[in-house]
C-alpha cells in the first residue's frame, strides 16, 4: 500500500504552480502541474510507481508504456516496482515524432503484437496525448486494455477515453489539490 497523502504533499510542494499557462491542447490554465518534478524525484517516482501497480491490481496485462517524455520515468519506475513484486512486465515508450532514420519506429521496447498493454500519462487533461499513444500502440498491433494517469485534471480526458471504450483510472485528481475542475460538456 503506497502513501497517497505523501504523494499529494510532494505534488503540492514541488509540482503545482499558479500563473498563466498554455497547455498541450492549446487551452489556457491558471495552474500547472509539472509532473516531471515528481516523476524524476526518487521518493516521488517510488510512491507513484507503487501506487500505479496497486491501482492495476487484478488487471492482467503484459506491458506498460506511454508517450515520451511524460511517460519515460514512470515506465522505468513501474517496471522496477513490478520486478520487486516478482511480476514480469515489458515496458515501451511511444515517440511523439517518428525517428526518421534507422528503424523508423514510433514504439520502442520489447513489445510484440497481441500483447495486452496499459497506457500511462503523468498528467491527463484532454487525454489527447494518451490517445495518440493508444493509436500508435494499436497501429503496432498491441491490445490496449486500460489507460492510467497519475493526475487527472478532469478536463475531458475521462469522457474522451470512454468514447473510445477505453477503461480509465487515475491515481490522483485535481480535486486532491483543492482545485475544482471546470464543467466540461
Ligand atoms: O491530456 P492532454 O491534453 O494531452 O495533456 C496532457 C499532456 O501534456 C503534457 O505533455 P507535453 O505535451 O507537455 O509533453 P512532454 O511530456 O513531452 O513535456 C503531459 O505530460 C501530458 O502528456
Ligand atoms: O494539459 C497539459 O498540457 C498539462 C497540464 C498540466 O497541469 N501539466 C502538464 O504537464 N501538462
From TrEMBL:
GO molecular function: magnesium ion binding; orotate phosphoribosyltransferase activity
Quaternary structure note: Homodimer.
Positions annotated to bind orotate: 125, 153
SUPFAM superfamilies attached to this UniProt entry: PRTase-like
Residues annotated as binding 5-phospho-alpha-D-ribose 1-diphosphate: 95-96, 99, 101, 121-129
Protein name stated in the entry: Orotate phosphoribosyltransferase
EC number per UniProt: 2.4.2.10
EC top class, as a word: transferase
Amino acid at each position: 500500500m503506497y502513501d497517497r497523502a505523501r504523494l499529494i504533499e510532494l505534488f503540492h510542494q514541488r509540482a503545482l504552480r499558479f500563473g498563466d499557462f498554455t497547455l498541450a491542447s492549446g487551452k489556457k490554465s491558471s495552474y500547472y502541474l509539472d509532473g516531471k518534478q515528481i516523476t524524476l524525484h526518487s521518493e516521488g517516482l517510488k510512491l507513484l510507481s507503487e501506487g500505479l501497480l496497486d491501482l492495476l491490481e487484478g488487471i492482467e496485462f503484459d506491458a506498460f508504456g506511454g508517450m515520451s517524455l511524460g511517460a519515460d520515468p514512470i515506465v522505468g519506475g513501474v517496471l522496477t516496482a513490478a520486478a520487486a513484486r516478482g511480476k514480469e512486465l515489458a515496458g515501451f515508450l511511444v515517440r511523439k515524432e517518428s525517428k526518421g532514420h534507422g528503424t523508423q519506429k514510433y514504439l520502442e521496447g520489447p513489445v510484440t503484437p497481441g500483447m495486452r498493454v496499459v497506457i500511462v500519462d503523468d498528467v491527463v487533461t484532454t487525454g489527447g496525448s494518451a490517445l495518440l499513444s493508444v493509436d500508435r500502440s494499436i497501429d503496432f498491433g498491441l491490445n490496449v486494455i486500460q489507460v492510467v494517469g497519475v493526475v487527472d485534471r478532469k478536463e475531458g480526458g475521462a469522457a474522451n477515453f470512454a468514447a473510445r471504450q477505453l477503461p480509465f483510472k487515475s491515481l490522483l485528481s485535481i480535486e486532491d489539490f483543492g482545485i475544482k475542475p471546470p464543467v466540461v460538456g
